Amino acid sequence: MARSSPRGGTVPEPDATLPTSGIVRQRRLSDQVADAIRDDILARELQPGDRLPSERELCESYGVSRTVVREAVRALTAKGIVTATPGSGLSVGRTSIDDVGQMLQMFLHHGPNVPYLQLHEVRATLEVAVAGIAAERIDDAALTGLADLVDQLPGHADDIVAASKNDYAFHRGLAVATGNDFFVMLYDVLGEGLMETRVATFSYDPRRIDVVTRAHRAIVDNLDAHRADGARAAMLDHLTEVRETWVRHQDGAPA
Predict the structure, then answer these.
(1) Angle at 77 between CA 72 and CA 82, to 5 degrees
(2) Which range has the worst mean pLDDT, 119-128, 184-193, 225-234?
(3) How many domains is the chain partitioned into structurally?
(4) pLDDT tens for residues 106-137?
(5) Is residue 205 over pLDDT 70?
(6) 155 and 123 share a domain?
(7) Rounded to whole angstroms, how far apart are CA atoms 104 and 123?
(8) 160 and 59: one domain?
(9) Same structural domain for residues 106 and 67?
(10) 11: in domain
């Protein structure tokens, strides 16, 4: 059963059959109100900056206390969905790509532990596609920058942290070369989340610098020729080898 409001928002009635302790817990009423406000924004197709009802009106609409509404608004403000301006009231937030990226980074750093292989699966899906798009769109300046990173990587053989940063810059540079800011944002999230693993894989065997250099050079060669299929294949080969290296060392097998 749900309470409806004249504005179209609904808040589910608390379920008295749910236990109040143990593994299953009832969601807080403020969380339910926050979801209802968000859904109302989407249903009404409101745009960033559009005014929202006042706290008093929200209390009346959803049949809850001002404390509950304030907690809901605070949660929505933290996510950038709602903006609260003193003297002006509430409005739809102006969330940027950077805001979305920061929320995803917070999830990876402070949320539930995500297994490496799951992150790698997402990374591989993203980066194989990115390599193909970059091959179609890359300009001379971006190509030169990536080629320079490939040439510089062998010089970091005695510094795995520097090698890892070079590797990160190379893969991020591919995302930048697509001209699509969403790819860059997603790579920033995944790339930072995988930095420790990147350092670890370089530490397994000093020969990995040469392996990664050859893989990156194969990708650049395909970018230079604007071969999208070749770039995707080279990236897939590279990331498959990265995954196999990580799995092999987790199993305790020799390099």
Answers:
(1) 95
(2) 184-193
(3) 2
(4) 545 544 455 778 888 888 999 999 999 999 99
(5) yes
(6) yes
(7) 14
(8) no
(9) no
(10) no
